[in-house]
Amino acid sequence: MNAMLRRGWFDRLLMLGLCLLALAWMLPLLWVLGLSFKPNELLQIRTDLVFAPPYTLANYLDIVQSSQVFRWLGNSAWVALCQTVGVLVLSSLAGYGFARTEFPGRKLIFAIVMFGLAVPPQSTFIPLHRLFSDWNLQNTFAGLILPGLAAPFGVYLMTQYFKAIPMDLEEAAMLDNASRLKTFLTVILPLTLPAQATLGIFTFLGCWNDYLWPLVIATNPDMYTLTRGLASTQTNFAQSEGLGFLMSQAVFAGLPVLIIYFFFQKYLVTAVAGTGR
């Protein structure tokens, strides 16, 4: 009885500690959200009255009134969607190949793919830019999408998830004269929905928030993504003269990703648990 009582107090203290850590993690986000509704004139004087009136929607109206903001929003949505679909297709095929098939050099190729996790993306900007410039892909959707299709993390995640699926299911399908492709599409792939959702969230999030590659490859304002376009509207004194406008841009750019994560968050835990089996 005493052991159960101590365990109950321990669980309560642990939950309290987690809630405090979550609150500490959310405070910067709440601060940004509060600043986005404050008048810029007031923020030039003081920034400590974040959660006290007055409030204004002027910062968000300034974003909406920008002539190209919705074009940038559409560009980001299209690039992120295409890149997410491409990564899911390629990572699923590669992961199934590494997990379920035997071919010469499989372990070596997989090790090379995993080595890509240790290569900083910034280190490949110069060769990628020269390559895409030679191919006349600068200021094109292909130039924005193609580099992100190389996803070592996606290959690793899908490989581990396919390994966790029992072989009996695949063998039973093949005994019914199902081809490997049909088995993959109708039996194995539907079981990887949690991993697919998780990889899709991470890919979409990374592409949506990417700033450096669009900064390099997109020089035409009509091809700007949302992060690149919003950054181009900021002045050198945005932090002091338009802090509320700057914070509203951060909220506006992050809101679509937050909505997507809200609908797919239940798959994250399932996918991580599946890779550890």
TrEMBL record:
Family statement: Belongs to the binding-protein-dependent transport system permease family.
Superkingdom of origin organism: Bacteria
TM stretches of this protein: 12-33, 77-96, 108-128, 140-162, 183-205, 243-264
Gene3D superfamilies the record matches: MetI-like
Keyword match Cell membrane: yes
Entry keyword set: Cell inner membrane, Cell membrane, Membrane, Transmembrane, Transmembrane helix, Transport
Gene: ugpE
Protein's name according to its UniProt entry: sn-glycerol-3-phosphate transport system permease protein UgpE
Membrane topology: Multi-pass membrane protein
Localization per Swiss-Prot or TrEMBL: Cell inner membrane; Cell membrane
Biological source species: Roseateles oligotrophus
